[in-house]
Amino acid sequence: MRYHYEKPAIYLSLYGKLYICRHPVYDKCTLFQIGDKGLAVIQQRFDSEKKVTWWSEVDPWLTDDLYLHPKFKEYFDERAGKCTDGLYPTVTVRQIMWALKMKPMPKERWETVFDRRDI
Predict the structure, then answer these.
(1) In the chain, what are the domain boundaries?
(2) What is the pLDDT along the chain (119 residues), one digit of tens a residue?
(3) Nearest to 66 by CA among 54, 80, 53, 55
(4) Using CA atoms, how far apart are residues 30 and 104, in angstroms rounded to an integer?
(5) CA 32, CA 18: separation in Å to the nearest integer?
(6) Helix, strand, or coil here: 63?
(7) Reduced to 3 states, what is the DSSP secondary structure of residue 43?
(8) Count of H helices and E strands in the chain?
(9) 18 and 57 in contact (C-beta within 8 Å)?
């Protein structure tokens, strides 16, 4: 049995779209929209040469698994909101995976977390 979520060999990315904005933490995210409500999901990246991290959109092989999860709609209804000043409510990919009880991705040493629920 796998403990961590693994990238599938074949995948499609039909759900979620790249959203570019001026958020203080990130400038690109994956946006899930249903009606006039949206939920931005971000994932941390790392550049090993420059030793820097940043937040951006979610890997495309994860988007459909998140959106098609049986508990996604319930989570979306709880956390999503309308666009305010070009920004939507935001969660990290780890927050949503834990909430949906999905197997997590392996945690890297360079990863950081947010202390608060709202980003």
Answers:
(1) 17-99
(2) 567 777 777 777 889 999 999 999 999 999 999 999 999 999 999 999 999 999 999 999 999 999 999 999 999 999 999 999 999 999 999 999 999 999 888 888 898 887 677 78
(3) 80
(4) 18
(5) 9
(6) helix
(7) strand
(8) 3, 5
(9) yes
Distance CA 104, CA 100 (A): 10
Positive/negative CA dihedral, 13, 14, 18, 24: negative
Q: How far apart are CA 28 and CA 42, in angstroms?
A: 8
Compute the C-alpha angle 111/112/117, nearest 5°: 135
Q: Are 13 and 107 in contact (CB under 8 A)?
A: no
Place of tokens 């969660």: 91
Residue 50 CB partners (closer than 8 Å, separation 6+): none
* Contact predicate 103/65, CB 8 Å: no
